[in-house]
Amino acid sequence: MSQEEVKAEVKPVNPEEAVATTEENLTAFQIKERKGRTLFVGNLPVATTVKALKHLFAGHGKVEKIWFRSIATTMDSKQPERAKIITKNFGAQKDSKNAYLLYAVKEEAEKAQKALNQTKFEERHIRVDLSSSTEKDDKGKKASEDFTQTIFIGNLPFVASEEDVRSHFVDCLKGEDGKEIGKIENLRLVRDPKTQIGKGIGYIMFSTKEAMQKAISTKNDSKFKGRPLRVKRAVETKKREKKANRKQAALEDRRAKRASKKDADDSEDEELAKLKGMKTAGDALESDDSDDEKPKKRQKKDSLPPVVDLS
Are residues 117 and 190 both part of a single domain? Predict the structure, then answer.
């Protein structure tokens, strides 16, 4: 591995972080301008070199810098991440890595993105996005996302590759007559940014709604590596959060009602227990009339007066 590649291979970080550490002293305007000419490239073979990647993208403009991210390394080693990468001590939880390319001109980066997204590079379909398009706007939506044509995939194996998932859905791109009805614009598997282990979910954005609808109707509950997949239309982050908040509020309301009912039942049980205790002791359920108020025995009218001895 050359010195150039050693410098490029740094510890894995969140793939959304397109700002290199050298940008710490830049102004907000400079960072924004730099992101506008930076490309995110996903699903690259682990063995991809800086030279090979630069050769691929140089045909669309001058590439100033390349750095790699999201490289899976072995989890049972105490080596620093950088050392693992340099010694090629890669992990089996992921067979690809990501990269960022900084172009000299924004327009060249945009041209490269349109030309190379979802094209094959060393037997892999690479994902190419403008770094600025992966940032969320005020509504929590990314410019690269179109939820009207995106599916959510659940119950994926924790170790799965983008290529395997793509192969599972590729037949959704053709209609019954065999003609093409759409393309895959974006495929993303959600992974832990530190370990690179999958979280069992992913997203595919199609170029047409027809392809998306076919994926939902034909692939929901289909088997992928022995697991039945959950496939449905993806929901925007804000809408998903609102739905989750409504569910949480409803759950808390039900809990409060159950707690209130339990308190009422406990209070009633206490009253009944008191009454039962009083009945057992004979304290309150008998008449509380005083002895003076109780009816006295009547004497018989024909009874004789007592005999008096006069002797």
Answer: no
